[in-house]
Amino acid sequence: MVTLKKEVKLVGNGLMKNKPCEVTLFPSNSGQIRYFVKDKDSFTASVDNVISTDHCVVMGTKKARAMLTEHLSAALAFCHIDSVDICMTEEEVPALDGSSLEWVKAIKEAGTDKPFFAKEKYYTVSEPVYYLNGKTSLVILPSDSLFMSYAVNYAHPDLTRKFINYNPKNKYEIIEARTFGFYHDLKKYQMLGFAQGVTQDNTVGFTDDGGYTTELRSENEPIKHKMLDLVGDLYLTGVNPLNMRCQILAKEAGHAVHVKVAKMLKDKLVEI
After folding, report:
1. CA separation for the pair 242, 11 (Å, rounded)
2. What domains can you pick out in the chain, each with its CATH number?
3. What span, in angstroms and rounded, lies between the C-alpha atoms of 169 and 166?
4. Element (H or E) spanning 171, and its range?
5. Does the pLDDT value for residue 213 go beyond 90?
6. pLDDT score of 81
7. Confidence at 92, pLDDT banded by 50, 70, 90
8. pTM of the model
9. Whole-Å CA distances, 26 to 42, 67, 113, 200, 212
10. Span of 35-44, 70-79, 243-252 with lowest mean pLDDT
11. Is 213 helix (H, G, I), strand (E, B) or coil?
């Protein structure tokens, strides 16, 4: 069980609704990642509590919910935190810079607390887990080590039939990879009530001339953000995907597929 040494507090506006929200992470010995939203209700970070995957991951109960949880989930995975209480003053986790970077920095600054004799646990799958639907797929196979690959095929010259593989040496390029979208779709989403907090600082926009609205932080940053989302979404199984000894192969997927596979994966993970 790993928790924080001291509380972490970050404030910012949501990507979807643009409402300001203060989020405080408190050390906990519960052995769970728990959300407490607007003093209404609490729930654990679990695929069983996902209520929507439209545009972002939304978890909650009938009384309370938390939106845009994926970047925080990924940050907790990369920092190997599995016991923390997350208290929110609004329903949407702040977008911050559109990645997990600010969360990871704040957690590293606070420090983590791990029992001295605790050993890292590793998991694999008892049998292959897969989702196949047309061009979209997410396959998880047993393996002796972790291998993650993500392939995309967007209508953008840099992102047509491209893929990346996870490399622990370059994990910070995944942590700092920002969310993205086609710039010509922005007004449409905003008219529908989404993407109200999108800025050039927190979102990489694809332009119609094959460029970007902002300079990329690293090569293939949008694909790295897809892998960031995948790490966050698979952590909702209760097992850190970075501790899985599996081949995780994703192609043209998204939150809906990530969560669907996480639900199948949850009961097939075995400790090794």
Report:
1. 27
2. 3-113 (3.30.230.20), 123-178+217-271 (3.30.1700.10)
3. 9
4. helix 171-175
5. yes
6. 98
7. very high
8. 0.96
9. 14, 19, 12, 31, 38
10. 35-44
11. coil
